[in-house]
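Lab meeting tomorrow. Please check the following:
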Amino acid sequence: MLIYAYVFALVLGAVLLGASIFLGGDDADADADADMDMDMDADADVDGDLDLDGHSGHGHDTHGDIGGFFGVLGSMRFWTFFAAFFGLTGLVLDGFDLAEPFVALPLAIVVGYLCGWMAVTLLRQLSANDTGVAAGIDDYVGKSGEMLLSAGPGRLGKIRIELKGTTVDVLANCEDGQLTRGQHALIVEMRGHSALVVPMPDHQQPAVR
């Protein structure tokens, strides 16, 4: 019977929530950082695709909203809240005969999903505010990182940098020679959504492990 599935989900979600609270904020912060990194990397990739294809920024916003709604499926926190509220909703509706089983099940799924999505979204926003992820143009200049895609005159590449504790991928232009994938470069100027980069001096190149 579905009632047992609801009870199991409720108990599992409650245990995971309790463990998260008992263990403190370290695991929660790590999960939020992982979620945020995935979102920012995804947004940067979309930016790159849109810029290369010549689309406007409005298209990016639409893709970001859709990705944000379904992108929570990779978060452990989402499944914790989903299990708890799916089980609670189903148990109340089915256990107290407030709805037929075929009605209670989809309602429990919808409520569980919405609660999980709202919890993850809210915690991501709080984490972003705490770490000061919002960065201005000046924050990019002077940052160095590894080239993910080769760049050169007339060829748009991509560089990965650490910005305010977060990994960010940025479109990159190089007007002086070629920068190959894996090479480290320095951002000297921001031009819209892309960065002007130059090769890092040999003595500043990271040691190869």
About this structure: The chain has a mean pLDDT of 75.
